[in-house]
Amino acid sequence: MLTTNSTILPTKINKSVITSIYKTFAPIYDIAGLLIETKARQRCVEVAQIRDGESVLEVAVGTGLTFAEILKRNPSGRNEGIDLTKEMLEQAIRRVSNSDAKNYRLAIGDAYKLEFADNTFDLVVNNYMFDLLPENDFSAVLSEFKRVLRPGGRLVLVNMGKGSKWFHHIAESLYRINPMLAGGCREVALLEYVQAAGFSQATREFISQMTFPSEVVYGRKP
Prior knowledge:
By secondary structure, this protein is of the alpha/beta class. About 35% of the residues lie in helices and about 25% in strands. The protein has helices spanning about 15-25, 30-50, 65-75, 85-95, 140-150, 170-175, 190-195, and strands at about 55-60, 80-85, 105-110, 120-125, 150-160, 200-210, 210-220. The protein is globular and about 45 Å long.
């Protein structure tokens, strides 16, 4: 297990508060998502290299911005999406119900305890969730992701990351003032945790959009 990274701020909100925050943000989340997350979400889908017919799980689907892209690339496969917040999930359901996609299921679910059998999925995708979680929980959640992946399965994570320019830290400065101003998110660094969880071929890319810093982290289950 990794020791706590002192450069990652401690989370100031608990799970119940997260649900409350995103219940409020659900109707307007897409505005921020499109403005500051689009490039990283697009890169997430590219790195995932989805092949039609696979079994894919997205944890924390939010309003379905990434899930809709997954469905386009996997129309014949199995597509599962979960989120902790009912109001966010309802937005995702509305988004994908307007498409021709049929092979999907969206449901309330918890990343800490996935209700799927071992070795179920070829790909697990997760966007902007670890930046909300306590750092001490990173390893446990990654172990749960690894459990449901098949051998050779891929993991792609996107989070608010650490950049090198002063303007990359604007959002985290807001978090220091009041976590609610940053949607409860702060900068994290997942690569070492992914490696420590036993994923191979682990890589990290940094992406900035309108000064907002994101990281895209990839790993493969041996």
